[in-house]
Amino acid sequence: MDNKTILKQLKLQAALMELHDENSFKIRGYQNAVFNLDKTDLDLGSLSLAELEKIDGVGKSIATNINEINQRGISSALEEYLKNTPEGIVELLDMKGIGPKKIKVLWKELGIESGHELKEAANSGLVAKLKGFGEKTQQTIINALEFKEANAHKLHFAEAEKLAEIVIAEMLKITPDIKIEVTGALRRKMEVIEVIDLIVATDDIETIEDALDDAENFEQVIEESGPITWRGTYKELRIPIQLSFCEKEDFVKEQFLRTGSNLHLSLEVKDKLTLKDIVRQQNFASEKEIYAAAGLGEIVPEMREGTFEIEAAKNGKLPELVEMKDLKGILHNHSTYSDGKHSLEQMAQHCKDLGYEYLGICDHSKSAFYANGLKEDRVIQQQEEIDRLNEKLAPFKIFKGIESDILYDGQLDYTDDVLASFDFIVASVHSVLNMNIEKATQRLLTAIENPYTTILGHPTGRLLLRREGYPIDHKMVIDHCAKHNVVIEINANPWRLDLDWRWVHYALEQGVKLAINPDAHEMDGYQHMVYGLLAGRKGGLTADMTFNALSAEEIGKYFAERKQKIAANV
What we know:
The protein is α/β, with parallel strands linked by helices. Helix content is 45%, strand content 12%. The model has no long low-confidence stretch (mean pLDDT 94).
């Protein structure tokens, strides 16, 4: 049993304990255990009961539960809670903006046992009448339910990419003679995927469909399928899968037509013809040939959105997109000084081992008490350790950073003398996410005006498929960053991908550099860099406009000169 599954069960049990009014100290014990175990390198699934009991903060009860999960797949305690809790109530526990205690009130006082029933009660005004709720909480619930419904059965690109690989491998086992590749939104590297869209070249569609009927992992939705299209699901997953069949000689053409957005394919490119018109005139050996026939340079799949790429191609100004090899360092990362899983030295050494020249450490600041944010004395402690590690790991460089919370009024949460001790500051919003667009935007503008703000972190705070970002005027924020020479982050975590790729091109037009940051809380988090890279590429990001494509020497010089300029103006 992997740690992620074990911790998910413990977290659910803690929520159910709260729902059923268990002892608050016991609940807090489970919550603390989840927090601490999430940062451990121990393989919980391989430990005996005696070994589990020796882990700090675990104790006999939690150790017994983990041991049962390892042995049976689920603990008897969790089974008992689930037995006494309606399935719909369990699903509601995962909803943002409402905790177990409020869910219990809804369950016991209104008899609500599902999201559908809750939505009906909220829309009819019954929820607002309950003690401790009110109109504002009721609207929060409605918004959360609508968001959850709208995003049901969708995947982050990172998850969809892996699922597509599994489905392709399974298809090739069933019918090895086919040619099969991803297409559609997945090939364009969209941040959220609604359908695993695959194109299949074959000379025998009927045989493949018969094989799929016999395959236990595939389930067809017959009413949504057609003569050259199979639609259904894979295994118990409810994520839609679409297989589009074509003749082998038509593969390039059909993949091209199914990859680009409708706008990309429908814009006039040559002699009043669209790409859709041109590709249907004949068969092509490659997509490069298709664009050449249109008088254009080849546009990579991720840019085929119909935004600026056609005009750029017409003018011979397609950008040379940033690549992984261009990235020289990794900024915005966390260690065990705040809520990270690995120590500062482990994070630095792993970064070095991956071939990067530098690491920017940005643990949480003191306002983030929930994440063990650094008070001033611990800032000094960390910076002293950085000095020692820089001597040990040279020429690899650790830059002293902090993810400073942007407070309600836009101020950063350290005094200027503390801010001045860092090489750079990532300023981010983590709290009070329910502001209107005017207040939320002004909050960011104030933070951007702070001379110590180097990078604006995840500008909207969104969590894809979980939580909408707070509303901001992107144009105004980007313009302000251009005015105050502030870099904007593309947070590479697949849950965030924020700055949204749709604003990348505008930022570049304003001369704003972008930093691809993984926001890594463990060493494996560095792997997320590729998703930030893809988001940047969708918006036309080049190496020269990527902040962390600067070498260690160049970025060190940039930080030093910026600090000197601030000191001179104080």
